[in-house]
Amino acid sequence: MPSELERAIAFDEVLRERCAERIVPARFGRAFFNDSYPRVWDLNFLRTYGGRHVDPGEVAADAELLHTSAGHSHRRVDAPDESVGALLEPFFRRLGWHIDREIFMAYRGGGERGADTSTVEEVSRDDLRSLREEITRGEPWATDDEVVSMVLDAGALWAGAGNARHFAVRSGGEVVSTADLYSDGRTAQVEDVATAPAHRGRGHASAVVLRAVEEAQAAGHDFVFLVTDEENWPKELYARLGFEPIGRWWSFLRTPSEARGARARSTAGS
What we know:
By secondary structure, the chain is α+β, with helices and mostly antiparallel strands. The protein is built from eight helices and eleven strands. It has an eleven-stranded mixed beta sheet with strand order 1-2-3-4-11-5-10-9-8-7-6, sandwiched between helices. Helix 4 (129-137) packs across helix 5 (145-161).
């Protein structure tokens, strides 16, 4: 019987497969590509797996080759296996890539913090467009209108793949906080939790997350989880809401600007 961590990773894997237009075999895993959204990093990456020796240098070389062939300006490697992620981290850190450690957290209930979920309503994805655009434009990687549009449109792809339901809090008729709930009938994932900057600190995020959990449990899901950055504050909020860490994975990223800088340095030194 699979563990909770194995179930969470398998759930994510299915979502990635459904969102991919191409899946390319690699020496230590598979590359997931969506050519319709080449600037959405979450849809275009190399995923490595455990079970055999993984050579960090060869993984980096595979990522360079695969992304170059796809015409991408970024490079990304994901490692859902903890032992593989720990092995790769020192090498990619020396290369200067960004390193994110994400933690899987399973809902246990009995958290020290609650929220009034009666303020939360189920909405359509179209109702979220304005808030999602505000949040997206505030990200450091949102450098132009094209990438913002791609990320927003790709959200609909994720929602379809995950059979998503959307929960939100409104203020003055406008959506100011939201969370999605992905489902396969037994496993559910709370995802894309976001609150407008002007409305933070009012408990809205707690309310939408707990409402999503309530709906998942009411629908018969026996496992509810979420994924969050190990180094940022939301993990503390989720712990107070009743979520518990069950494992982690690594993501390694070289942004387009860093890739351009590397090419320029290489040319200058030739």
